[in-house]
Design brief:
Layout: H1 3-14, H2 18-56, E1 61-64, H3 81-89, E2 94-108, E3 113-121, E4 137-140, E5 151-154, H4 155-160, E6 168-174, E7 180-191, H5 196-199, E8 202-206, H6 207-214, E9 223-228, H7 234-245, E10 250-253, H8 254-257, H9 259-297, H10 299-307, H11 312-348, E11 350-351, H12 353-358, E12 364-366, E13 369-371, E14 374-375, H13 381-398, H14 400-407, H15 411-417
Parallel strand pairs: 3-8, 5-7
Antiparallel strand pairs: 1-9, 1-10, 2-3, 2-6, 2-9, 4-7, 5-8, 6-7, 11-14, 12-13
Helix pairs in contact: 1-11, 2-9, 2-11, 2-13, 9-13, 9-14, 10-15, 11-13, 11-14
Length: 418
């Protein structure tokens, strides 16, 4: 009997137990649905989370003084930033590159004083894709130029200082030589990042103002922030830049700069992987049980086929073809039941506002980065392929032992047992 005939026989065998086959297909489809939805929720949510962290901080990759990460003071600056911006911008994976000066400051008004993190930036070079605060202004306005006047505070910090728009704010920091310097600007705006802890200790300044205050050159800053088209390329880009800039410049990826976020994401992904493995094992066990029971119930049939001249190899192929058909139909069923929920969730997102409210939270934040209560989903194409391949391989693999068992039936014993 040729392969086409065996395939036709395998197809008929599947539908001899229609209910069992449909239940098996349902388990495969549901397992695929769960795997896709869990993975899609992680892929886009964590990609957005990483991009938000990059826009709030140092980009996907940061070039800075080798000692700045351990001792982030303004005495450890990066010189010739113009050339470094051009170097990073030439990498094909880079979408944008900017220079920033970041450090600690003490801000004070007539009412109170607090320590804060300041970020000095060039408004002419930043966009909403590189600087999260561009679209999070709560009151007032953002800077228009690197030498603009004014200071912007986090919304909570401004309230703690009892500072209103137009009020004078004094800020104190150390300069490039470690000396204490003081500046004074009027409050021109407040920002709401969605992370209360960040809003309680954030200060934005024009980079030109800070350079003059701390004695930096026009092409000097504490870091060059590099933004990528795909944040997953950060290690590769960091490696290429490290080979180009030499030992006098440290090139760090976002997860090296913010290890708390890396640990949080790793823990979440690890939990999801464990859950997906459990689901896969349960589905594979169900498939194995279906095929194995089918083989055991057909022992007499297989014995007669062997007596009529079928070979053990042909019976093995027959059962494996049944597994293959199950795999193909299961994959198609998974696509069918996943398509609409995936499209809806990708367009509208999953609203967790009520969940946050029940926990007494307005927002969720990790290491100063606020997480949106609307969780959108989106799966990377390579992960979709992995899930599809896993479904097919799990189904086919589950049929190997039953197929081998079918070819080991003793014709005389199986016929007499009937």
């Amino acid at each position: 009997m040729n392969l086409l005939q065996l395939a036709s026989l395998a197809w008929r065998n599947l539908w001899r137990q229609r209910r069992r086959t449909l239940l098996t297909l349902s388990s495969i489809a549901f397992g695929g649905f769960l795997a896709v939805m869990f993975t899609a929720l992680e892929d886009l949510s964590f990609a957005d989370f990483i991009n938000t962290a990059a826009r709030l901080g140092s980009g996907h990759v940061a070039m800075q003084h080798p000692e700045y990460h351990d001792t982030p003071t303004l005495t450890r600056s990066l010189t010739d930033t113009t050339a470094k911006v051009a170097l990073a911008g030439a990498d094909p994976a880079t979408s944008h590159t900017v220079e920033r000066t970041v450090g600690q400051t003490m801000v004070a008004t007539a009412n109170d004083s607090f320590g804060a993190l300041f970020i000095a930036y060039d408004p002419a070079k930043e966009t909403a894709d590189t600087f999260a605060f561009t679209d999070s202004i709560a009151e007032g306005k953002l800077f228009a130029s690197p030498d603009d006047k004014g200071i912007i505070l986090g919304e909570v910090l401004a309230k703690n200082l009892d500072a209103q728009l137009g009020d004078k704010v004094v800020f104190t920091m150390t300069d490039r030589n470690g000396e204490i310097v003081t500046g004074m600007e009027r409050l021109v705006g407040t920002v709401h990042s969605g992370a209360p802890s960040l809003d309680a200790g954030l200060c934005l300044l024009p980079i030109g103002t800070v350079r003059k205050l701390v004695g930096y050159a026009p092409d000097e800053a504490t870091q060059v922030a590099v933004f990528l088209k795909d944040g997953r390329d950060a290690p590769k880009v960091a490696g290429r830049l490290t080979g180009s800039v030499g030992p006098d410049v440290a090139v760090l990826t976002w997860d090296q700069i913010q290890p708390e976020i890396r640990s949080f994401i790793a823990a979440k992904i690890g939990g999801t992987i464990v859950m997906e493995v459990i689901i896969a094992l349960l589905v594979a066990a169900g498939i194995f049980n279906t095929i194995f029971m089918s083989v055991m119930e057909r022992s007499r049939e297989f014995g007669i086929m062997l007596a009529l001249g079928y070979t053990a190899r042909q019976l093995f192929v027959l059962v494996m073809l049944e597994s293959t058909f199950l795999a193909g139909m299961g994959l198609a069923s998974a696509v069918a039941i996943t398509a609409w929920p995936y499209s809806w969730a990708a367009e509208h997102g999953i609203d967790l506002t009520q969940v946050y409210a029940e926990q007494g939270l307005n927002t969720m934040e990790i290491s100063g980065v606020g997480m949106s209560p609307i969780m959108r989903i989106g799966i990377y194409p390579e992960n979709a392929v992995i899930i599809a391949v896993a479904i097919v391989l799990a189904t086919i693999t589950a049929g190997i032992y039953p197929a081998w068992k079918a070819g080991r039936v003793n014709p005389v014993e199986s016929i007499n047992l009937a």
